[in-house]
Amino acid sequence: MLKNVPAWARFLIVGLLMIVPYVWFSDGPLQQFWYDAVATAGVAAMAVGIRRNRPEWAAGWWLLVVGQALNVLGDGIYFYVYNVLHHDAFPAPYDIPYLLSYVLMVLGLLSLLRRRNHGRDRAGLVDSLILASAFALLSWVFLMRPVAEDKSLGLLGQFVAMAYPTLDLLVLAMLAWLLTSDGPRNVAFLLVTANMVGFLVGDYFWAFAQQTMYNPSNLGSRLIDCAYLVAYVCFGAGALHPGMVQIGRPVGPDRLQSMTVQRLVLLAAATLIAPALLAWQAWHGHGQVHDAYAIVLGCVVMFLLVVARMMMLVRQVQAQAVVLEEQADRLREVAQQDPLTGLPNRRAWNAALPAALQRAARDGTPLTLAVLDLDHFKQFNDAYGHQAGDQLLKEVAVAWADNLRAVDLVARYGGEEFVVLLPGATAAEAVALLDRLRPRTPTGCTFSAGVATWNGAESADELVARADRALYRAKDAGRARIECAEATVTA
């Protein structure tokens, strides 16, 4: 039935089915053997997945494998110490592999996350620190402070007991960073996330039971064990999935991250934990707050992190505004540029001419424009083809633009027709300037032109129309010539 099912899915299904009978096992060697067998299978699947999928950054994955293998070793030592040696002192030898396992898991996750985000995902890191700070405050109030006040444990015992929730907080920070970072969220990503969630759920339930002096029943203890077993199976299946190579793969260049509603709600809830604890302790203690300094410290840390996050958002908005402005500038430039010749197009001309008329009126200087038309361009196209005609237009645009004054403006008006704006030039000076263009027109082509000087009162359209009529006179007179429009009398 599972023949055509991928290896990762088969392992996940079989592994979860193997966990189900564990709930009904009684304490003893069989229970421990079953637990270690499922956990070891999960670790072995991780190793097989790494060898099979060959991720680009395997070191981080091997740290995770060794870390979870040490956790399995700690479970075996725990069973031997308690059930064979009947030794219940704390700390015990099994604490060494347990603590090392979490250290290696944190290092492995940190290695993958830094590679995944190029070490530049500061926004995701700050968000994860906000969440970790909130849970650190909860851990101090409900888990760490009772240990710190328990002098019967001794200095080493207190250190070891507080190391567990501290390392859990680091794992939680890595989980939050993973969930808030960019990159693909495929099946492997979800399974690896489920692994971390399973370990954290098991740890926090067990720690809560210990600190509240609640001794979980056999069924309750086995349910906590099942959380760990699900974590092992999920990680094994995730490592077998081909998508695991994308978890530690760089996601590309930096890009702007949006503050989603879900993330905002999560961060807001995290920052409200400190005042909620303050209110709870004040109510529960009839006005006395036992962890005032810890709550104050937690509020200060989260406030500073929120301020840092706000600064990042402001910088993102500013950066986005700059990008949008650059895009708008490029769009305006493209909208006013002829795509063939690179000259200003008719849209740009229609914006430049009224502005030039206003300057001429203000300064009292002459303003002349000319309309130029390549002679016999249609025949050139028919003889040599449209590609040759397009190339001629490009060469004409370069030649004319290079041989006009810096203040002059030449634009493509349409087809083979061009317009030239000549500020400060009289009609005679304009004709002299246009005569310089004749020998520089490519391939021996000629042009006809109509020139008109602004009379100080007519509109832009009227001025162009006068120059256009002069152009048609030049064409009717045999082409390859320049005609000046008749002067008009100002009303």
UniProtKB/TrEMBL annotation:
Pfam families: GGDEF. Residues 365-487 form the GGDEF domain. The chain crosses the membrane at residues 7-26, 32-50, 62-81, 96-113, 125-143, 155-180, 187-207, 219-240, 261-280, 292-311. SUPFAM superfamilies: Nucleotide cyclase. Signal peptide: none annotated. Keywords: Membrane, Transmembrane, Transmembrane helix. The keyword Amino-acid biosynthesis does not apply. The keyword Zinc does not apply. PANTHER family: DIGUANYLATE CYCLASE DGCC-RELATED, REGULATORY COMPONENTS OF SENSORY TRANSDUCTION SYSTEM. This is GGDEF domain-containing protein. It comes from Planosporangium thailandense. The lineage of its organism: Bacteria, Bacillati, Actinomycetota, Actinomycetes, Micromonosporales.
